[in-house]
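User: Here's a structure from my thesis project, written as structure tokens. My advisor, Dr. K., wants to see whether a designed sequence matches the one we expressed. Can you design one independently, without my sequence as a hint?
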């Protein structure tokens, strides 16, 4: 029986000790009280005169308390030997208790600091943007959100990823040293775990972005996160949820998992369309980078009561700052570059391209149009061309099919790769004739044997069978060879290149390739735009849809007499007469100068402008 009680007491004591620092401090407090009570009682019993001299029981207890907390207090004690011995005893006991207390407090404080460094504390914010997952895209996303929130007094971006909190913060600080008014908060947790999702306050968030990670299962992880968010019980309005999947085959499953209100981007499809549209239009990637980024010009939706009842064509020069690109009807239908006689309805919104919504300003008077500068010469009809596709990856079949819909009948596409393409790249093509040439893309002699001077366009695909870093390294070597060969031949072809990392794109500028497609960056920019305005999803869908109006860089000679002095309002009017919407121009002489590479969107409509035959006008058109 006695052993059982002892074991029960030990079990109870161990249980209290397991409760952490507060329990340990409580036990030390109990030990201190017991020590003081025992010593005070002994002093009262054994040294009556000394006890009375020091204020009785309460006085001796106070003296014992001081000696327990501060051993130096007993240095001036006077009294009998028994009294001094008891004071020494309480002092020695206090040394052990205080030392243990300091150790417990230090350990508890260090533990708490380590817990804070783990990023496991619950977030209390409102109107914040949550980013779930971690990849190289996170730096582009955060930088864009910082830029978007510059006009906000207080904004917050929260990142939840299964990584060390301090490591994430250090990485972001090194890449984005000046976040402005935006607070960037990191939390360590797995977005695939419901309890970890609750750490970042999804109920009070403005938007939630699910980033695709690296590896073969990245789409599966995105789909599971979307399932968790869709099945969650929300205590308030559901925030905007945006996500991207890498494989087009997973888009349907992702959208089903996300529900009707979430937005899912097909990253694979966007990348292919960018390459296909850019391969014949030098500078197109720079146009997309600006329109999708918060740096420079982007899309805005705006009600303009003063223009209700006006044909769309009359709105094109109705703004001093900002340029219309289409309409969003009261039914939610998006029309980029609609027919010029389309009437602006009472509930319609104009889709405008501007630097900021605060900078959109209607014109007091319509800018003057220089009629003599508008060309009357017919546009040159498109001709069949020859394109060389260097390398191959999982998107090659889809790219070839899309190129077939863009080119003129009789065009040729040769695939230069170490291994012959599969049958899926060769079948059911209406406009293209596809051939194969053996090539090792990083070997100069292999490239020279391709007779590059016979092609108008060259597309270099990133190798997705190896890691992104080495793939970009191989692409850089190929580009250097292509550029040197091109210089020797006299600049006969354009070069469009896929890259995985935007940092490598900056390194590759020395090769002077005409266009670099960094699909991961474009997807990051699109996701960021959608977190700020979900209605832009329909705009982007229409922009990348080959059946609607797309962005083209057409020869300036189609619109203005080469060398004639005019203004951009004249360009807008010339494009209107062709059923097109002009949104900017590209100057060939600035084509190698970052960051815009000669592209100027939403320029001043009244400033003098002279375009040459080498320049291009950026328009929204059906073909």
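Assistant: Designed independently from the structure alone:
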């Amino acid at each position: 029986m006695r052993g059982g009680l002892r074991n029960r007491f030990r079990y109870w004591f161990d249980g209290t000790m397991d409760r952490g620092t507060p329990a340990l401090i409580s036990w030390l407090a109990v030990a201190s009280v017991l020590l003081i009570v025992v010593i005070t009682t002994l002093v009262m019993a054994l040294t009556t005169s000394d006890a009375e001299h020091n204020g009785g029981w309460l006085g001796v207890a106070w003296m014992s308390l001081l000696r327990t907390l501060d051993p130096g207090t007993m240095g001036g004690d006077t009294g009998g030997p028994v009294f001094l011995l008891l004071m020494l005893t309480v002092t020695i006991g206090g040394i052990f208790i205080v030392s243990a207390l300091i150790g417990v407090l230090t350990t508890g404080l260090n533990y708490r600091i380590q817990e804070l460094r783990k990023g496991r504390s619950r977030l209390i914010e409102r109107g914040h943007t949550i980013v779930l997952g971690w990849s190289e895209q996170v730096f582009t996303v955060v930088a864009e959100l910082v830029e978007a929130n510059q006009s906000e007094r207080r904004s917050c971006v929260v990142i939840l990823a299964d990584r060390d909190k301090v490591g994430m913060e250090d990485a972001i600080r090194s890449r984005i040293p000046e976040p402005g008014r935006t607070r960037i908060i990191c939390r360590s947790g797995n977005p695939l775990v419901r309890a970890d999702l609750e750490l970042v306050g999804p109920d009070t968030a403005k938007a939630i972005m699910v980033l695709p990670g690296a590896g073969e299962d990245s789409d599966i992880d995105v789909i599971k996160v979307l399932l968790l968010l869709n099945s969650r019980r929300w205590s308030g309005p559901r925030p905007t949820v945006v996500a991207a999947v890498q494989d087009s085959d997973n888009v349907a499953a992702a959208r089903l998992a996300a529900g009707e209100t979430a937005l899912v981007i097909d990253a694979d499809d966007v990348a292919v369309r960018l390459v296909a549209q850019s391969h014949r239009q030098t500078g197109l990637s720079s146009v997309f980078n600006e329109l999708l980024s918060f740096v420079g010009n982007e899309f805005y939706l705006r009600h303009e009561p003063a223009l209700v009842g006006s044909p769309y064509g009359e709105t094109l020069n109705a703004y001093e700052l900002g340029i219309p690109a289409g309409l969003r009807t009261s039914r939610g239908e998006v029309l980029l570059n609609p027919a010029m006689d389309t009437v602006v309805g009472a509930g319609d919104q104009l889709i405008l391209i501007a630097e900021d919504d605060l900078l959109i300003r209607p014109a007091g008077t319509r800018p003057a149009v220089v009629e003599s500068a508008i060309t009357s010469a017919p546009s040159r009809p498109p001709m069949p061309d020859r394109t060389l596709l260097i390398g191959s990856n999982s998107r090659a079949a889809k790219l070839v099919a899309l190129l077939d819909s863009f080119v003129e009948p009789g065009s040729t596409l040769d695939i230069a790769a170490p291994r012959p393409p599969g049958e899926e790249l060769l079948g059911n093509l209406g406009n293209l004739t596809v051939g194969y040439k053996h090539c090792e893309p990083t070997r100069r002699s292999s490239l020279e044997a391709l007779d590059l001077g016979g092609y108008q366009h060259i597309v270099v695909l990133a190798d997705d069978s190896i890691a992104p870093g080495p793939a970009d390294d191989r692409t850089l070597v190929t580009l250097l060879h292509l550029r040197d060969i091109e210089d020797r031949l006299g600049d006969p072809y354009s070069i469009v290149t896929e890259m995985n990392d935007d940092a490598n794109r900056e390194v590759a500028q020395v090769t002077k390739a005409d266009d670099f497609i960094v699909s991961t960056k474009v997807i990051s920019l699109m996701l960021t735009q959608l977190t700020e305005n979900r209605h832009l999803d329909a705009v982007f869908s229409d922009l990348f849809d080959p059946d609607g109006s797309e962005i083209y860089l057409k020869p300036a000679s189609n619109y203005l007499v080469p060398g004639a002095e005019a203004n951009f309002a004249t360009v807008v009017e010339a494009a209107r007469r062709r059923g097109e919407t002009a949104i900017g121009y590209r100057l060939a002489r600035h084509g190698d100068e970052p960051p815009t590479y000669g592209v100027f969107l939403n320029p001043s409509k009244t400033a003098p402008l002279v375009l040459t035959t080498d320049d291009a006008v950026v328009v929204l058109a059906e073909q």
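When you compare it with your expressed construct, this may help: The radius of gyration is 36 Å.
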